[in-house]
Amino acid sequence: MTLQSSATRHLPPWEGGDLASRPVTGTVKNLATELFQRICAERYSYGTRLPAERHLAEEFGVSRNTIRQALDLLEDFEVVSRRAGSGSFVSFKPRPEARKSNGPETGEELPPLEEIAEITSPLELNVVRTIIEPEMVRLAVINMSARDIAKLHGVLATLESITTDAAEFARWDEIFHLQLARGTHNPLLIAMYELINHVRRQAHWAPNKEKNLSPRRIRDYQQKHRSIYEAIEARDIESAVEFVKLHMTDVQQDLTRGS
Q1: Is 0.70 surpassed by the pTM of this model?
Q2: If you average pLDDT over every residue of the chain, what do you get?
Q3: Which among 59, 52, 55, 44 is positioned nearest to 1, based on CA atoms?
Q4: Are residues 133 and 233 in the same domain?
């Protein structure tokens, strides 16, 4: 399979940490990444139809089944949408490149993401989560499709299988909440939550978080996540919001103990 190089490479959405919930072969992942790069370069622009599967299979020298798996991955991350009998259409809009502020008319420049992560304390992060997550889950209950809920259930199943590994539990906890963000189908909110997860992983305070995740505490958090999921599955907005608020209260208490 011959992949074309791009002058500017963009990070595919499945590189955010939760591809483990949908294992794919290296060939499929590389092919999906190449198609994603073409979309970002607007070789395949928003709303247009991708070449037919047989043409892509011929171009890349792979089977049509491999092409289908790559398109399945792109569809899972809402890069393309599939229409029976019509083909695959681009449903992803590349973000414009960030431009630096060169004058007062554009306001003060934001600090780099790494600097934001360094200067944000666990309690400051939790304040932001407490503001965002109740309304995020409210929107998720309204907008999540049956497929979104099935994905969330798969993440929850993995989360509930972890009994003692604090680091692994923390990773899947991030994936669970990011899946809630994706369920809103709001690109800005999803990007904001990806930043929240980026800050959560910072080495200067992540060990304190994991230190509090004893097997008993892991079980407590699993029950909270189960309650959130069941409320979402039942389309019970108020219960889902209340369970998220209770969860955020527990997280804040743990952070206070660990600080």
Answers
A1: no
A2: 83
A3: 59
A4: yes
